């Protein structure tokens, strides 16, 4: 309105960004109300570092957008968290995970229970009715717990926003039989002392500590310390983002219990993973 070129340019660029973002938000609202099938799950296995057995499948959401193609969660999860849309989206993700587990019950020969782990955002953790929603979805799905168990991943940053409430919620989820993991461990600001208050089973060491593990003595020291501490507190440890055989060997040597990363498998649709699982379980 001032008529100055630079300001106008700036305003236009801002306007473009705001409009684009608003469009994504509207598209998501529309999809959640009328076409939830646009959202689907890919699964990435977590394997036991000693045996190479698949012990868990992490559910990672994808959005098949009608115009923009397959969107990665980094393109829409932050917006969904800010707007609160993560709550209905999260409920749908949980339902999808249960549907998938139910289908696998028919299609897989499972020798021992497989965990299916779902990411929970802080907004979901703060919902007073989260536990009710989860237990309703679970009992509705009627999954055989001797074959599939649901698990949840929460980041320390989200848990630390309200540690007391989070601890209570996590304990209730655990009482339901869910396996709990602290995700992206090491990237937040949590005090190590808090660890003992959280009723979790597993600590997932963030990929940023794994990427340079081969040539960074600092990262090696951090990973060793986390493993030592986690084991002392009776937690198991997963290393995220393992991409090379050398890294896997190193982490196994460092007593990391489980590994996850492109080396073993990328996140992929269930159909492709089923083949892998049946090969393993049939052995
Ligand atoms: P995350 O939970 O830490 O998931 C791990 C991310 O690292 C995934 O990205 C995965 O594809 C990627 N990754 C796995 N192995 C490797 C590797 O070896 N190398 C590299 N470079 N990357 C690897 P993705 O699927 O794009 O998900 C990104 C983030 O979006 C997730 O990080 C999680 O925070 C969030 N997210 C994904 N699905 C959901 C969901 O269903 N609900 C919620 N609340 N958040 C989700
Ligand atoms: Ca995760
Ligand atoms: Ca993670
Ligand atoms: Ca991470």
TrEMBL record:
Q: Keywords, A to Z? A: c-di-GMP
- Coiled coil residues, start to end: none
Record GO biological process: cellular response to nitric oxide; regulation of DNA-templated transcription
Alphabetically, the GO molecular function entries are:
cyclic-guanylate-specific phosphodiesterase activity
Q: What sequence ranges are listed for the domain EAL?
A: 21-281
Per the UniProt record, which residue ranges are transmembrane? Answer: none
What name does UniProt use for this protein? cyclic-guanylate-specific phosphodiesterase
Origin species, per record, is: Dasania phycosphaerae
């Amino acid at each position: 309105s001032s008529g100055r070129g630079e300001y106008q340019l700036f305003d236009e660029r801002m306007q473009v960004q705001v409009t684009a973002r608003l469009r994504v938000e509207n598209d998501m609202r529309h999809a959640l109300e009328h076409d939830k099938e646009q959202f689907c799950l890919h699964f990435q296995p977590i394997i036991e570092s000693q045996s190479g057995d698949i012990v868990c499948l992490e559910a990672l959401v994808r959005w098949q957008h009608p115009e923009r193609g397959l969107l990665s969660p980094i393109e829409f999860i932050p917006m969904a968290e800010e707007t609160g849309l993560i709550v209905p989206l999260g409920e749908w993700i949980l339902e999808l995970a249960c549907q998938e587990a139910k289908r696998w019950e028919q299609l897989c020969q499972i020798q021992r229970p497989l965990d299916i782990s779902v990411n929970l955002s802080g907004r979901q953790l703060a919902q007073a009715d989260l536990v009710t929603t989860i237990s309703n979805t679970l009992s509705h799905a009627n999954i055989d717990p001797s074959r599939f168990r649901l698990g949840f991943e929460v980041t320390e940053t989200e848990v630390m926003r309200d540690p007391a409430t989070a601890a209570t919620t996590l304990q209730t989820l655990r009482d339901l039989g869910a396996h709990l993991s602290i995700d992206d461990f090491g990237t937040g600001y949590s005090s190590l002392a808090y660890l003992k208050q959280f009723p979790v089973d597993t600590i997932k060491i963030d990929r940023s500590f794994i990427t340079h593990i081969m040539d960074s003595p600092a990262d090696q020291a951090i990973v060793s310390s986390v493993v030592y501490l986690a084991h002392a507190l009776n937690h198991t440890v997963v290393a995220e983002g393992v991409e090379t055989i050398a890294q896997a060997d190193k982490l196994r040597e460092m007593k990391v219990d489980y590994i996850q990363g492109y080396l073993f498998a990328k996140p992929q649709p269930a159909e492709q993973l089923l083949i892998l699982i049946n090969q393993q379980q049939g052995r």
